[in-house]
Amino acid sequence: MKILFCAYDRPGHIATGPNAWLQRLIPDLRNTYGLDISTFFIYNGAIEECPTLQFFQSNGLPTFSIDRDQVPFVADQVKEILQIIKTNSLVVVVANLVIPAFYAAKYLKPFNIPVIGVLHSNDAFYKSVIKKFIIGNDTDRLTVAVSVSDFIKSIADSDDLKCAVIPCGTPLKQEHAIRENAQLKVMYAGRLETTQKEILKLTTAFLHASIKNSSLEFSIYGSGSQENEVKLLLNNCKHTHKVYFKGSVAPSEIQNVMLNHQVFTLMSDYEGMPIALMEAMACGLVPVCLYEESGIKEIISQGVNGLIFKNREEDYQDKLKTLVDDQLLWKQMSENAIQTIKTKYSSDITHKQWFELLNGYRNSSVKKVKIPLNMKLNGELLYYGDNRKPLAKEIIAKQLKEFWLKIKLKMRPRARLRRLLKK
User: Fold this and answer.
1) If both were cysteines, with which of 33, 218, 340, 373 could 206 make a disulfide (CB 3.0 to 4.6 Å apart)?
2) Residues linked to residue 43 through DSSP beta bridges, in sequence order
3) CATH number given to 184-345
4) What is the CATH topology of the domain spanning 2-169+349-359?
5) pLDDT over 80 at 411, yes or no
């Protein structure tokens, strides 16, 4: 049984939970459970600088890829996926979050090749995926959907397609965070983006808390489009503070970095089941996170294994002060955080669940794939990334518009001259 996992990648794409998850899951499914898995990447930029793609290639794992700059339209990307599946006799596709892999479900259905979608978040993009590929018409529907949280399952489940819940999970650590005095080291690890992660608000909150309470020290790990803005906020702060930007850390090393801290913070507007949060809790860090309706409230039990705050200002500072002042409370929460991961969110548990799901298709009767000559993607565009090939009439209309603009530009100097002569 040959399985294909799909993903996106680009240079510097290190601080992303779903790709870090793949770097743990796929080798384990191959080495521990004996599954025959290949990966497929749609990438842009220099291929040698794409971190997850390079991880699989450097470890000798079968990898296919296409350059999004060379194959920009989703329909053509679907054809590329179908060709890879046909040529390599693949029988199961894990679409993960890859748009053309979702669209491929329609064309693989007649050949009894299952396509499994993974719902990592509850943002507008995933809601559009749920609408089209899960609760939409039968032609486009995925075979199975896997949600990383119970909340996402609740909005994706339907009578026509049941949604399984498998968090991404995290490795357990033998070493755990320790605390020797009243000082607390707080960290954030993830993408440096304003959308979802609200990284500038987080940086500001770190500064305010550091200035107000000298027992607190903060570190920011990650990469993203707002990296320079984060550095500017720190450099331009007129007050003495202990907030430090530390840059990116490879997925294989992030938990070793976490062990040097005591608290982990997220201030996202929305999440699925945050992988960095699970990694931190496995290390014994106490989570202090902003309330959101999906993963945060599912994994954190208020006052038991972490703290949830209502705003990024006063309530956040109050929650941190509680931990600064009460070392015993921190210790109890740290132990409970570790136990939470052990009982439900460890990689040992979640990887076994993935094996059981995939192994269920071992005896499926699969037919040889036929690739259609013409491929037309119908319906509403997904929230982003659904780069459809323009129709012939749209191309002609665009060309006519550009032609007309050129004519107008050529005519304008003469029109000005005529007006001057009339004067």
Assistant:
1) 218
2) 9, 67
3) 3.40.50.2000
4) Rossmann fold (3.40.50)
5) no
